[in-house]
Design brief:
Helix content is about 25%, strand content about 20%. By secondary structure, the protein is an alpha+beta fold. A four-stranded antiparallel sheet has the order 1-2-4-3, with helices on both faces. Helix 2 crosses helix 4. The model has no long low-confidence stretch (mean pLDDT about 95).
């Protein structure tokens, strides 16, 4: 059921470094993104994929991880992602990002989850340095970096209490992620039946 897939899809920051995401799986995930809707059907997105340990370590150093985590976050070298998909916008096709990259990135993450993988979407990274490091031509703007691999952490969802939405880890290293309830986010049309 689709709901189970969505509920299972969580942001993963610690990975099993011994599991390598294959080139074929990365291609399958990009193929899913390729089939998503695109504003005006322009299809301006391109994708840089890698499962190279050396490249992954270089990419990792240019990413901003765990905006809410105060302490205890940050993967050791054995827990780094083993693949990356970098979502690019071809500025020769359009100068506007629209929302295509969000749709594509979430589709990739759901596809990864279905395959027993996990990942983290990064919109925070050192763009110029990463672009130069990977020799990506200037006409391609980096929109997202998706870190992927086999999850090596447990995540539980719990209700938001006192408007505290920051995620945290407990003594057993379990990640707790507060989520607002459905009643907190819905507004109903009074004329609904």
């Amino acid at each position: 059921m689709f709901k189970n897939l969505v509920y299972k899809n969580r942001t993963i920051r610690r990975f099993d470094g011994s599991y390598i995401v294959s080139k074929e799986i990365l291609e399958e995930l990009v193929d899913l993104a390729r089939m998503t809707p695109s504003s005006m059907n322009l299809q301006p997105l391109k994708y840089y994929i890698t499962n190279s340990k050396k490249t992954n370590e270089l990419i990792y150093k240019h990413l901003i991880w765990a905006g809410c985590q105060v302490e205890g976050e940050g993967s050791g070298s054995a827990e780094l992602p083993t693949a990356h998909i970098i979502v690019l916008r071809d500025t020769d096709i359009t100068k506007h990002a629209s929302c295509d990259h969000g749709i594509a990135a979430q589709t990739i993450m759901l596809g990864a989850t279905e395959k027993g993988l996990g990942g983290c979407m990064h919109s925070g990274f050192k763009k110029a340095e990463l672009q130069a490091l990977l020799n990506i031509p200037e006409k391609y703007q980096i929109l997202f970096v998706l870190s992927l691999g086999k999850p090596k952490e447990t995540i539980v969802i719990e209700p938001v209490i006192n408007n505290k939405v920051a995620y945290w880890r407990d003594e057993q290293n379990i990640q707790h992620v507060p989520k607002r309830t459905l009643n907190e986010i819905l507004f109903y049309d009074p004329s609904m039946t």
